[in-house]
Amino acid sequence: MARKSRIAENAMSIISAKEGAYKTAVYARLSTEDLDEDTLDNQIYLLKSFVGEKTDMVLVDIYADNGFSGTNFERPEFTRLMNDVKTGKVNCIVVKDLSRLGRNYIETGNLIENVFPFLNVRFIAVTDNFDTNEGGGVENMVASFKNLVNDVYAKDISRKIITAFRTKQKNGEYIGLVAPYGYLKSAENKNKFVIDEKTAPAVKKIFELYAGGYGLDRIARIMNESDYDCPRKYRYSIGITKSDRYKNSKWGRTTINTILTNRAYIGDMVQGKVKQELCNNIVMHYTNKDDWIVVEGTHEAIIERNLFFEVQDILEKKKTEQAVRRKNSKSREYKEENLLKGRIKCGCCGKSMNLAQNVRGNSISRSYYCSGYKELREAVCTNKNRINKSSVESKVLESIKKCIFNNIDESSLSLEIADKNTQDIKKRMVQIERAIRQTNSKIADLYKDVSDGLIDENDYLLMKTKFLNDKKQLEREEKLLSDNMKKTSDSAGKLRAADYLKKCKKAKKLDRKMVESFIELVTINDDKSIEITFSCCDEILRKLEG
Question: Is the dihedral of CA 225, 230, 236, 242 positive or negative?
Fold first, then answer.
C-alpha cells in the first residue's frame, strides 16, 4: 500500500474539517441462536441513547441484522452499512459490543485494524469501552478481553445463584420477599412461614363467606366494614412496606380472588410462577401451571384442604358459567363504542366511569357507572348514579361546539397554500436525489479502483474529497427545498384544521376524534352534574393540524 504523502494528509484534514460531527451509524445484530426481537430493540435503544448524548455525533441511519451468525459477514444490513461507508454517508460505526460486529476474530480484526482506518471510519463498541479514536489496537483489545472474562465470571455466579434458589424452592423453602397475608416469615428461619394471629382470622372469614355463597365484590365490602386491614394497608401499618400510597388501601375483588386461590393457606409451598434468568437471556414471564414448584405440608395450614378445594370448584364453575354467558350474550351484537373511554371519571372518588351495555328482551340500555362504587360501595364512593350514554355524549358535543365558537379563531387558519412552484420544487428534488446517487456510485467505484490498484491512496483521498464536497452542496440545496415544502405542508395542515372545525360545528353525533382532539376530562358528579375540561386551544389546533 502506498505511503501517505503531505497532500494525502491535507486531504484528510479537509475531510475532517468539512464534515464536523461524525456521521454515525448504529449497527445491531442477533444470531440464529437468539431471535428475541426485544433484545434487538434494546440494542438499538442503547446505541441511539449513546449517540444522542454525544455532541460530536449525528445519527444518520440504523442497521440491524436479525438471525445472522457473527461468523457470517454476508449479512444484508452489514453489507448496506459497508456500502454507505464507502460512499461517505457514514464515517462512524457504533455497536453494542465487539461480538455484534462479528465473531470471526480474523475478519473482525482486519476490519478494525485495516479497513476502518483506511476509510477514515471511527469504530466504537459501547459496552466494551472500545473506541478507535482513543488508541484502539492492542491496548483496547486487552481491555475488551478483560471485560469478556468478567462477563463470563458474572454469568457463572448468576447461574450458581439460580441453581441455589431452585434447590431451596424444591426443598419447600420460601425465597420471596413478603409472606402471604395471614402469615409472617419465621424469625428463626426466613424461608419458613408462621401463622400471623392478627390476620389469619380474616383469611378464614373470606373462605367461609365465599363457600357460603357470597360473591367477590360483596366479600370485599364486608371486609372493608370489618376491623381487618387489607394486605397492603396491613403491611404498611407494620412497616413491611414504606410507601404512603398504601396507608388508605381498601379490600377489592382482585385481592379477595388472590387469597382464595393461594395454596399456601393449606400448608403447601407453591413457587416458580414467574421465571427470569438474565444470564440466559430469559426475560420475566409467567410460567405454565405444570412448571410450578409445589411442595406439600411445608408449614401450618390456616384453611382445611376440603374447604380450599371446595372453593376452587366454585370458582371454576363460576368462571365457566361467565364464559358461557358472555358467549351467548346478545350485547355484542348491539355494542357501541365507548367514545369517552379513558377520559371520563367520577367526581366523588376519582375512579373511572365504566360503560354498561345491557340487553333485555328487545331493548338495550347503555349507561355510565362509577367503578369505585360498584366494587366497594360507600367505603370509597357515594356516587351510585347511572348516567345515560346518549345524554352524556350530547352534552359533550354541545360543549365542543361552544368551545369552537367562543375560544378558537378560525380566521387564523384560513390561509392559501402557496403552491405555484410546488411542482418545480418536486422536479428539482428528484434531480438532486439522482445526482446524489450518481455521486455515491462514483465514490464506491473509487474504493474499488484503489482496491484493484488502479489508483493510489493519494489520488483516492483527493478525488473522494471532491465528490464529497459536490454531494454536500447537493444535500444543502435539497434541505433548502425540503424546508420550503414543509412550509407548504404546514399551510395544508391549517386548512385541514379549519375544514374539520366546520364539520364539528355541523355535527349531529359525537365521535372519538372529537373527544381526542378537544376533551381532557369529563367528570360525573354524584348530583348527576357533568363537568367538561378542555385541552388548551394551542393543543387542540396542534392535534387537528397534525
Answer: negative
Cα–Cα distance, 90 to 76 (Å, whole number): 17
Q: What angle do CA 91, 57, 74 make, to 5 degrees?
A: 40
Give CA separation, 427 vs 192, 424, 441, in Å: 77, 5, 22
Residues 140, 133: Cα–Cα separation, whole Å: 11
Average pLDDT of the residues in 199-224: 94
- DSSP state, 495? H
User: How far, in Å, CA of 287 to CA of 277, rounded?
Assistant: 13
Other beta carbons within 10 Å of 485: 15
Could you tell me which residues are beta bridge partners of residue 59? 24
Global pTM reads: 0.50
Distances (CA, A) of 471 to 48, 432, 462, 476: 26, 9, 14, 9
pLDDT mean across residues, the chain? 81
Q: What are phi and psi of 448, to 5 degrees?
A: -65, -40
Per-residue CA distances from 80 to 25, 64, 74, 394 (Å): 11, 10, 10, 56
pLDDT in tens, 153-178: 556 777 777 888 889 889 999 998 89
Closest of 303, 75, 73, 64 to residue 201, by C-alpha: 303
Show the cell assigned to 44. 438499538
Alpha-carbon torsion, ordered 302, 306, 307, 313, to 10 deg: 130
Q: How many CB atoms lie within 10 A of CB 204?
A: 16
Other Cβ atoms closer than 10 A to 32: 11
- Least Cα distance to 505 among 391, 406, 388, 390 occurs for 406
For helices 200-211 and 216-225, angle between their N-to-C axes, nearest 10 degrees: 140
* CA dist list (Å): 125 to 104, 128, 132, 187: 16, 6, 9, 49
In 3D, which of 202, 201, 223, 219 has the Cα closest to residue 210?
Answer: 219
pLDDT digits (tens, 9 = 90+) for 31-72: 755 544 457 888 898 899 899 888 899 999 999 998 887 677
What 12-17 contacts at long range (C-beta under 8 Å, 24+ apart), as own/partner pairs, is: 12/120, 12/461, 14/465, 15/120, 15/461, 15/464, 15/465, 15/468, 16/120
CB 90 within 8 A of CB 19: no
